[in-house]
Write a structure and sequence with these properties.
By secondary structure, this protein is mainly alpha-helical. The chain is built from twelve helices and no strands. It folds into two domains: about 140 residues; about 120 residues, Helix Hairpins. The longest helix has about 40 residues.
Length: about 280
């Protein structure tokens, strides 16, 4: 019996964990992906009264099926987690349950479990959270060229995280400066739009992101002058992360093509291109 139990748990572990497989997705992974997409589609359609009212019974059936499948997936992964060395025993299971992915999955299942007792919850109110798990499965699975492309993109973002953080801080600083400037100039003219810095932040956000809805705009000459300057600054703010990511993606894909198959890129590594400074001279 113990041998059969161990084989069953090992089989379930390899079916529910994409990273445990040599290549591709298992049948359970495919079923999970389809269930997530179906649950999100049902949740979207339920917000339309023309569909929700006449097909209410079918939506309830769909919620029940999705909820049962989500609960089964979560319970199977908790049961099979012991196949991994670090998740064995009581402490290992607790460590597994405290993972962000498992917490998100538990939150997605909570409305289904609690809806009979909590009236304001529908069975799959948080089903869209399972999209996080679906994306993680795709990232951890080995899908040949698709996995290589995903790995290169992840590497590109992580290798330039400091520059992206600086760009974000700069964008926030300019956005606050724009809000303060228009608050001082336009606050007395348009108190409903610029009467406080928090109110002016909406204008600065849509201006610096070059959206420009047109619902709020300055009336004074000085306000229009400042708005024009901050609008030009917004173009540069948007271009900074775009240029950083474009260069990082180019480096990542070149490194992926030139690296031997056995060498994997790590997020902390900097890609070296032809003509760059050698490693032993960087410290000089």
């Amino acid at each position: 019996m113990s041998s059969l139990y161990a084989r069953a748990r090992a089989l379930v572990f390899h079916q529910v964990n994409a990273e445990a497989r040599a290549t591709g997705l298992s049948a359970v992974n495919h079923l999970f992906m389809l269930t997530v997409l179906f649950a999100v589609a049902v949740q979207i359609c339920e917000t339309e009264p023309l569909l929700a009212v006449p097909y209410h019974r079918w939506f309830r059936v769909a919620d029940l099926v999705v909820g049962v499948l989500f609960c089964a997936d979560l319970l199977l992964r908790i049961w099979a987690a012991g196949e991994a060395e670090r998740f064995r025993g009581l402490r290992g299971r607790i460590r597994f349950l405290l993972q962000p992915r498992v917490i998100i999955d538990a939150m997605a299942v909570l409305p289904f479990v609690a809806s009979p007792w909590i009236g304001f919850l529908d069975a799959n109110d948080l089903a869209f959270l399972r999209l996080v798990t679906a994306v993680e499965i795709l990232l951890n699975s080995r899908l040949g060229r698709l996995s290589a492309a995903l790995g290169a993109m992840r590497y590109a973002v992580m290798s330039r995280r400091e520059e992206l953080l600086i760009g974000l801080v700069l964008a926030l600083a300019v956005m606050v400066a724009a809000a303060v400037g228009l608050y001082l100039v336009e606050g007395s003219v348009q108190p409903e739009a610029f009467g406080s810095i928090p109110r002016a932040l909406w204008w600065s956000l849509e201006t610096l992101t070059t959206v420009g809805y047109g619902d709020v705009f300055p009336h004074t000459v000085l306000g229009k002058l400042l708005a024009g300057l901050f609008a030009l600054a917004g173009i540069g703010i948007v271009a900074i992360p775009t240029g950083i990511l474009a260069a990082a993606f180019g480096d990542a894909f070149r490194a992926e093509k030139s690296a031997p198959p056995s060498v994997s890129m790590k997020p902390g590594m900097r890609t070296r291109v032809a003509g760059s400074v050698p490693a032993d001279k960087e410290k000089l």
